Amino acid sequence: MNIAITGGGTGGHLAIARALGEECKKQGITTLYIGGTKGQDKQWFDNESTPFTHTAFLDSMPVVNQSFFGKWSALAKNITESLSAKKLLKEHNINACISVGGFSAATGSFGAIFSRIPFFIHEQNACMGSLNKLLKPFAKSFFSSFEYPNVTLTPYPINSDFFMKQRERDTLKTIAFFGGSQGAKAINELALNLAPLLKEKNIKILHQAGKIDYENTYKAYVEKGFNLADSMQDFKSGNKDIFVFDFSRDMAELMNMADFCISRAGASSLWELVSNGLPTLFIPYPYAAKNHQYFNAKSLIDKDLALLYTQDEISRIDINDLAQKITQINLSAISKSLITMAQQNGAECIINHIRQYLKN
User: Fold this and answer.
1) pTM of the model
2) Is 12 annotated in some ligand binding site?
3) Where in this chain does the record put each Glycosyl transferase family 28 C-terminal domain (predicted)?
């Protein structure tokens, strides 16, 4: 059996692609990954550690947040590139194709539809993406962990490391600030403002500052007189106040080290935090398409399993009030509920569903 997985552009979509690729590898399925050249796709999968049997990177273009003419230009480019995808699908004798969304998904998705190959979609967010909305009528099944009309509900595809590092929290000793690999200025500023108050309470900090703002953030902590760790192992020694870093491939271990987290609300990050049992305050990225990060986080807020502040609210909040609210959270109750909610067979469910469809 040969399955194509297409999509990406950003880390959330790519994390799903990787989880599906690893499950296919586990089941002995030959895979073709079709990504793009403009996002993070090659950084993730154009290397020896890729879970895919074959990879291809086409010149797909984002349609969202473009001008009217820009949208049509991007759409025309993607349709042209989809002919290359169609050729790849034929060369690799692909039996089914699943899109994980993101602008990199356009070429492979159109290629599969034009080839009349059984086509499937995974929607990662609580608000449907524009491309997925366009392609949903052509999909044999539409997978998601959020409620949608005519959806096949499955657990979110999460790397097993986050479950292996899962633990119940009961005491607040370490707070993690995660702004993503590119960083989040609002979260970086919040961490710097909270740090003196947290130090008074002997609470340590793990801080992903992102590549863009890493140096400035590091210097700001030094100027405030904090004792910074040189590495994760140095931080684990217990003698340092803060470990600040730009990017890490060991996020499961970093989450395991924290008792509370302040984070953006991309779907993959959200479900990784759930899987790890880590209580979180979400600050959604305000410019995400259709404000989907807000609605992702709201799915946990509605269950009383997280805190949520918009970026505007967090910029105006009294920092002492916020510190007090964080230290009064019932970590144990929330952590236990998150662990109960988490399910770790999302990728397996999706691949088994596709195999069953092809079998029938």
Assistant:
1) 0.89
2) yes
3) 174-345
